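Comment on both lines for my students:
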Amino acid sequence: MRLLLLSLLLVGTACLADDEDYPDPLYGFVVGPYALIGKAPDNGATYSGRGTLRYAGGQLLLATTIDGQTRTAIGQVEVAAIAKAKVLRFTWPGHRSTCLIHGDLDNYARLTCYWQRDGVEHKEPGMESYFPTATWPEHRQ
């Protein structure tokens, strides 16, 4: 009986494993929880919050919570025209952002982003940095 229960547990765990077939390996690299800091365009106010990147239904989704408000963006890996480097581009309601993808010392993704409001010519773009929190005590299992 114990062997049967153990077998069922192992099969159930294997079924929950992440076998996602990403269109680009960077999608799998960036998924996870983040702390974020930012500054609004045109020397605007600074802010901080939390973000979570996940891949679902063939899309990269970024949910951020700032001052208790959660917003979700749809993102994708693209090749930047000038540098021919891969970047993340996000589309939010009312603005868009472009993020560089870096690896931190623990081999988690760290993102640095510029963002702009749609239809506005800014003197300075908004900026955001996303720091991985997967190894922080609140996320350890």
